[in-house]
Amino acid sequence: MAAVLRVSINPNVLANKMSRSNPSRPSRTTMAIMSQDHPYWASVHAEIEVHLKQHILVRPPLSVFEPMHHLVFSAPPSPGPALCVAACELVGGHRDQAIAAAAALHLMHAAAVIHEQLLSTDRLKTKPKPRPMVHSPGIELLTGDGMFAFGYELLAKSMDPAQNNSDRILRVIVEMTRAMGSQGMVDGQYHEILMLCKQSRYYKYVCEKKEGGLHACGAACGAILGGASEEEIERLRRYGLCVGVMIAFSNRVEEGNEMETTEVVKELRSLALKELEFFHEGKAEAISSFFIS
Amino acid sequence: MAAVLRVSINPNVLANKMSRSNPSRPSRTTMAIMSQDHPYWASVHAEIEVHLKQHILVRPPLSVFEPMHHLVFSAPPSPGPALCVAACELVGGHRDQAIAAAAALHLMHAAAVIHEQLLSTDRLKTKPKPRPMVHSPGIELLTGDGMFAFGYELLAKSMDPAQNNSDRILRVIVEMTRAMGSQGMVDGQYHEILMLCKQSRYYKYVCEKKEGGLHACGAACGAILGGASEEEIERLRRYGLCVGVMIAFSNRVEEGNEMETTEVVKELRSLALKELEFFHEGKAEAISSFFIS
Fold this sequence. Notes:
The structure is a homodimer of 293-residue chains.
Chain A: H1 11-19, H2 28-33, H3 39-55, H4 62-73, H5 80-90, H6 96-119, H7 137-157, H8 166-180, H9 185-193, H10 200-225, H11 230-252, H12 258-276, H13 285-288
Helix pairs in contact in A: 1-10, 3-5, 3-6, 4-7, 5-6, 5-10, 6-7, 6-10, 8-10, 9-10, 10-11, 11-12
């Protein structure tokens, strides 16, 4: 089921880049990969946010829901949820069919970030500027648990007898549990806390399990909900994997030595776009606008 | 949807009991409530364990799956999962229809225990003897996350086209997310870490949200999967709530002053058994064997 990314990247180059990263300045590479200012992505992000705001209210007990509201909406942005909507539309589905799954994916991404930041303060030094901790670690741990649960709840509640979509939603739930669980995000985070990611051969593995897995899941789930064929699902899964790993690389590498980074990104970009060739060019225009040409 | 337990318990008595509890010795009250040695419960527990052992293997990467295996099978026993199977059988369902949900509930109960034990070591003093921590806090945090995800995966994968059970499974997923999330287990745990449970008026609230919610969920999910009517589901939910709160009380109160504890337990027992009167006596025999007569 899991897509495997076959890219010939020199791991030593990447490990070096990572260890010398300067997280306080935005990476130019990130900006070259994608444009969230593009009208298509802006509209998708706006709809996901509306859906989240409708469902995540500050209500009693405030001690529970205030931290959740804050942590959901202050999470670092991830293009994974938007990719879910774009994949659904690419295969002929309607945006509404994928919004709950996209919102669920944002919740899970945000919860994973919270739990990851609890693991070690040292490790945060090699990451993009960490979010300052507003709540106690205990509250953040429990809020993360609540957010994981609420993600699955949003998804399960999106069952609609008129759409007869129960089987698709169950399949999407399995996809998300695998992307977020011990074979996916958790596996990547394990390797990070064991510091294995400092070893170059594990660096790509961690990127594939974390950001790669999240984006692969987003694209595959959108495709499933939009009624895609198995081949379409797997192509979009690989597209998402490339996009996610690109984002991971570009968020972590330093600004200097951009030439090597650019090479890696270029290779991933080419692999990603190759997957889109399978689809009708006109239809793939929106999802391929992920990249600035 | 959520059942509300209306029992006239003197909260001051309970708060006093709790603060003076002696967690190192087993409570005689617990033993008076239920008998897991009863052949019916023993067979249910054995089947749930077999299902878990089939699905939770020690496999590569060992750094991920060894802690999960250990923490799933060393978790303190909870009757909640068994109640799920018993409720399914009571309403005419087959045991197989509820085993995956029961196993999922055990995973979630075990994950909640792990995360709760990470929150504060101080608080553990008022609890039953804490499990010694074998793994680092980071590994335990992530293993808990992996177990929550795997619980939902087991559940979603139990979809069976031959049984046409997708809608029931989605409903059960919503039940579990509510029992484990910010309106359930997490809410109870929040109140505990904020030490509100030391205030007598919050003590019953915490018991209802945690152990009460878990057992109410178990019984309601088993009923749903067994094809129960709405009235049967709600009666079994209230039965589970009473059983769970009884277990919480009896686990936390001290051995001395047993008379007051016995009164509370008696009242809850009577409420629980009242719910079972709705069902055919012969059919309810198994589930009512929860109590030693």
